[in-house]
Fold this sequence. Notes:
Blueprint: E1 12-14, E2 21-23, E3 27-32, E4 38-41, E5 51-54, H1 57-65, H2 68-73, H3 83-104, E6 108-110, H4 112-121, E7 126-129, H5 135-142, E8 149-150, H6 155-161, E9 169-172, H7 176-189
Parallel strand pairs: 7-8
Antiparallel strand pairs: 1-2, 3-4, 3-5, 6-9, 7-9
Amino acid sequence: MEPEDEPERGPLRRCIVTRESAARETMLRFVVAPDRTLVFDLAAKLPGRGLWLSARADVLERALTRGGFIKAARGPIHISPDLRLQIVDGLKGRIRDHLGFARRAGQAVTGFQAVREWLQAGRAALLVEAAGGSASERERLLGRRDVPVVTPLVAEELGGIFGRAHAVHVALAPGALAGRVEQDALRLAGFVTT
């Protein structure tokens, strides 16, 4: 650790594969059900001893191929063949839910003009862009503003949240929902390429 780095705050968890410690919000938690089935604990609240994994596809692959889950669970377990898909679908679902909550609470807007107005007024804490969107249009929208940008969903998925066929730009107001969307989008980024 370099002297200028800030010390970690909050509970840290150790990845069963990389052995690196990180904040629990940046990792994925799994538990073993009573029937010895491995369960992805999306909200990290299920009872039982958590098996923590860095939120990256290569780490998941190593855990699956090298028996990382079996060693951490201290015995044989059943692992679903579509575990990666469960992780991606679960994280996308949470992001859609949080964006929906933000929309209903008046903490999110969509559309180029509305998002630009929020950015100019300093009301945007997070910019959610459609995956595969134009980088040059994003730069034109952002200008020199230092607002975090995530690209977790395609335009049709974003649009569905706002009752549109598609949406490319979404701005979120500061608050817990923006933080949760950003955390889940960063975890999802380890599994999908945009």
